[in-house]
Amino acid sequence: MTNEKKVDRVHVDKRDLEDYNKLKQKGWPFENGQNKDVFLAAMIVGYHEGGRIELKNKEGYFREEYLTDEERALIRAIAVSETGDLNILLNEEKIYSIAEEYATGGIQILKAKIFSGEYGTYAKKLESDLLRSYDKIAKNRPKLQTFEETVRLSISDLIENGETEFVEFKSSLIWDYNKNQPNKMIGMIVARAVSSFMNSEGGILLIGVGDDGRKLGLDKDLAQLQGSLDNFELHFTNVINTYLGKIARPNISLRLEKLEGKDIAVVQSKKSRRPVYLRYEGKEEFYIRSGNSSQPLGISEANLYIKDHWPDLR
Predict the structure, then answer these.
(1) For 154-309, CATH number?
(2) Where are the domains of the chain?
(3) DSSP per residue over 87-147, as a string?
(4) Averaged pLDDT in 10-residue chunks for the chain of 314 residues
């Protein structure tokens, strides 16, 4: 499985820094603007004019997390249009490399257009056209077919794609949003989803994201754990050990990431080499992934499934 490097900074060519900064000075159109604003404008102009230039000396210009979802959509639209291949959406590093090269090609053109007074209407029309193109591309995006394709996506893309065979959202690990109080059942529900992924082809569970894709974060859970992310991870391990057994934990990874200022827990579960049972109230239950939900199998169905899914198991 290939692990693509996650982009944390967007770069410009060091030789162009003076021009980027000049466009934010008093009297220029980007006065009091952010670095990303100048970069996106240069990128749009470079793309429209066909000016794509490789960076010779990279300099970090702003953090990727400062971009909005709409701005990320614009950057992806350019990458798809440039390559003609939707698979580029699985390679975040390449997506941003294309954007950086177009910005490098566009910065001088941008300066010239600002001097001529034609930049405003020119850029707005370009941005609108590109976003409409991206919306059309997104609607026709093929469904990801494998777990390996899924794990290469960013959290933003996972949320944008919604719940699938390989992705599920859970609001919390401890807090019951319906009852507005802690509830041990929530941990069991999380463990159930994890077991279904492990009994299928693997999957990703995002904790801190509502069923509708809203980014809720982990504040409610952390308030029950002295505000400690370390305690959150420890509690997660205890949940898995309690409901799935300690033997399951090594096949499950947990990482915590920030998205729009909110903590999101990313739980990645590998396909297990043996059946994983959910132990709850003295019973054992067997779950698999079916579409975008976890489904229980009865004894006879589970026996048949296990024989087919793990033919070498003895």
Answers:
(1) 3.30.950.30
(2) 9-139, 154-309
(3) GGGG-HHHHHHHHHHHHHHHHHHHHHHHHHT-HHHHHHHHHHHHHHHHHHHHHTPPPP-SH
(4) 69 92 79 87 84 92 88 87 83 93 88 65 57 55 67 83 90 94 95 96 95 92 94 96 94 92 94 94 92 90 92 79
